[in-house]
């Protein structure tokens, strides 16, 4: 510690605070998986909308079209659930947990897979239905397994830690800014 010309004792060994705010790799992986799952659900939405239009337009099967409409609505719920929007999860508590989301994803995947062979010459539609449905079923199975392994608990604990760390960094920056302002006022007053 040394005294400056104004009689103020300062510790010159302390450098300005710099806090490294790196992302938690586990949370990054969870966000990436949620993004991939949302993409799979969007693919299921597209396939089911296309199948619905074909069912109603060509008169293949009205009941298949209605079934596809329900699949679209539930797939939209899957996409919203993957955003973990607190307003939405407040009303659907089961979707806070990965096992609940996984079961819903598997249900949408099975609904997308239903009735594929009725289109005869439309092998590209059947292939797209299979890809979309199995992709979402795999994501749902991974969610159920991660729910059984308590990854949701770990994820929520790390999210809380990340939020508290971010708040601590903001508070520290605010204190540093305030300290600099007070030092500037003290220097002006001494001068």
Automatic annotation (TrEMBL):
Keyword Iron-sulfur appears in the UniProt entry: no
Regions annotated as coiled coil: 158-185
Domain of life: Eukaryota
Classification of source organism: Eukaryota, Viridiplantae, Streptophyta, Embryophyta, Tracheophyta
UniProt name for this protein: Golgi apparatus membrane protein TVP15
Keyword annotations: Coiled coil, Membrane, Transmembrane, Transmembrane helix
Signal peptide limits: none
Keyword Mitochondrion: no
Residue ranges crossing the lipid bilayer per the database entry: 26-50, 62-81, 131-154
């Amino acid at each position: 510690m040394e005294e400056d010309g104004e009689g103020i004792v300062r510790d010159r060994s302390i450098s300005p605070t710099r806090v490294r705010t790196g992302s938690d790799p586990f949370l990054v992986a969870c966000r990436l998986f949620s993004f991939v799952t949302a993409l799979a659900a969007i693919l299921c939405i597209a396939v089911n909308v296309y199948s619905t239009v074909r069912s109603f337009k060509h008169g293949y099967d009205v009941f298949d079209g209605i079934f596809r409409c329900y699949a679209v609505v539930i797939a939209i719920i899957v996409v919203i659930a993957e955003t973990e929007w607190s307003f939405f999860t407040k009303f659907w508590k089961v979707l806070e947990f990965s096992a609940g989301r996984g079961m819903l994803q598997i249900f949408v995947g099975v609904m997308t897979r239903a009735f594929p062979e009725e289109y005869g010459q439309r092998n590209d539609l059947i292939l797209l239905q299979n890809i979309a449905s199995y992709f979402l079923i795999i994501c749902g199975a991974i969610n159920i397994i991660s729910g059984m392994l308590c990854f949701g608990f770990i994820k929520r604990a790390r999210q809380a830690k990340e939020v508290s760390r971010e708040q601590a960094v903001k508070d520290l920056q605010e204190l540093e800014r305030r300290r600099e302002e007070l030092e500037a006022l003290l220097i002006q007053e001494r001068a």
